[in-house]
Amino acid sequence: MDFKKLSTIVGWVVFAIAATVYILTAEPTGSLWDCGEFITGAYKLEVVHPPGAPMFMLVGHMFTVVAQVLSDDPAMIAYSVNVMSGICTAFVAMFVCWVTMILSKMTMVGRSNEMTSGQMYAALGSGLVAGLATTFTTSVWFSAVEGEVYAMASFFTAIVVWAVVKWYHQDDSRENDRWLIFAMFMAGLSLGVHLLSLLTLPAM
């Protein structure tokens, strides 16, 4: 298998591990501070405190609809929004894994040069370690199991960074510029959750 296929597999393995851990450890109901407000806002499609988080509300509402279909227990509504945060954070771990592998490859051989098998496995290992380190970092895990905006904001930040690094890694061409456009689109969507993704714009 080539590096591209193996890196894709390793990234999805990291996602599966992270998602399993976060779903199993998600808060069973609402937790302290703004979580109750965001869970209620997602459930009823209400406006939360300024500046608001319309993207979070819309996606969260879809999770609450599924919760109502699966169970009559009102606590499942809160749990479903907490699970959404876990899934978003699992994607963060996956994107961190992929970004690390791309940067590892560029460090060793540059953009287009082929790697030796040793270099390839070193890059794959670095991505695996980075992804799992992200998964089990205390501050990341803390936000991954509650219904707050930070998990989804981290998701958008991670996908923007991944798209920019992917664009930079590929050959200079008009066709590859689609990744830069995609990154800007994701950064725009992220403003409906939190302003965190604006931190990626200087790097971009």
Fold and architecture overview:
- This protein is 72% helix and 0% strand.
- Helix 3 packs across helix 4.
- It has one domain (3-148).
- It is built from eight helices and no strands.
- The protein is an all-alpha fold and 204 residues long.
* Biggest sheet character: none
SSE-based structural type? mainly alpha
> Which consecutive residue ranges, at least 5 long each, have pLDDT under 50?
none
End-to-end gap: 31 Å
Number of strands: 0
Helix segment count?
8
Give a nutshell description of this structure.
By secondary structure, this protein is mostly helical. It has 8 helices and no strands.
What distinguishing features does this structure have?
204 residues; mainly alpha; 8 helices
How is the secondary structure organized here?
Blueprint: H1 3-25, H2 35-44, H3 54-70, H4 75-109, H5 117-136, H6 138-144, H7 149-169, H8 178-190
